[in-house]
Amino acid sequence: MLHIGCHLSSSAGFAAMGRTALSIGADTFQFFTRNPRGSKAKAIDPEDAQALMALLKEHHFAPLIAHAPYTLNPCSAAAETRQFALETMADDLRRMEYLPGQYYNFHPGSHVGQGMEAGIGLIADTLNAILTPEVTTTVLLETMSGKGSEVGGRFEELREILDRVELTDKMGVCLDTCHVSDAGYDIINDPDGVLTEFDRVIGLRRLKAIHLNDSKNPPGSHKDRHEVIGAGHLGLEALSRITRHPALRHLPFCLETPNELPGYQAEIALLRKHWN
User: Who is most buried in 12, 77, 95, 120, counting CB within 10 A?
Assistant: First the structure.
């Protein structure tokens, strides 16, 4: 079974997101933990969270993906920016305990001229400060396109972070198809080779989720601009092969394409049609 969903607005509440997902044929989804461009987070209604958990169980959903705000940069050169990231991520993990057993995905950040080694160390320091044995959420490092001073454009960079995290069993990776293509990995013509490289460097057991996005830019462009499925440089055939790949087909796939709900519904139906 193809476990697929899309990014949904959390403004209406947890249970409402679950019902919306069902209405468009999804059996997983992603949501921002708070304003993606700010720091405010809504108070959590425990009954609403329980209602979503019941819905997920009833309809056999794959794990959900909570996404950290884009404003976080745990490897910033500014101490106050790093502290903001630490406090926000720690708060997000506390809040995620209302939805136990899900995923929390974040962009590793940009080292802004400090150097990759320094950036990797600061990211690991943040993770070591916020992860505790009691946390039920798996924290995911997202593969990035490698633009500017971004950390995570190469698999080796993510592996170095993972190697420095003490509670390593709490960690995983989310592979973004647009990002890895823009980073220069040939998932269009050689997905087996890319996954073999991922397994060699990081280990496929660490791969927990896929952001399924087409790209507005050609491979190796280091741009990071998502496109609707089939309208970009990756194309429907390559993306469908990824959903069917034996090493990936059991994972949750989440669309982050530039769409509204009707567009997501059409993409989900299209990808399910090409999955069997």
Answer: 120
Say yes or no to pLDDT of 17 above 80: yes
36 confidence band (pLDDT: 50, 70, 90): confident
Per-residue confidence (pLDDT) for residue 222, from 0 to 100: 96
Backbone dihedral region of 112: left (phi > 0), alpha (psi from -120 to 50 degrees) or beta?
left
Three-class SS state of 148? coil
For 19-27, the CB contacts below 8 A with 24+ separation are 19/55, 20/261, 21/61, 22/55, 22/59, 24/261, 24/264, 24/265, 24/268, 25/265, 25/268, 25/269, 25/272, 26/264, 26/268, 27/1, 27/3, 27/59, 27/60, 27/61, 27/62
| Alpha-carbon span 69 to 94, nearest angstrom | 15
Whether residue 219 contacts residue 186, with contact meaning beta carbons closer than 8 Å, is answered with yes
Residue 143 is classified by DSSP as P
Q: How far apart are CA 87 and CA 239, in angstroms?
A: 36
3-state secondary structure of 230: coil
Per-residue pLDDT for 154 more than 90? yes
pTM over 0.90: yes
Pairing of strands 207-212, 252-255: parallel
Question: How much is the average pLDDT of 21-28?
Answer: 98
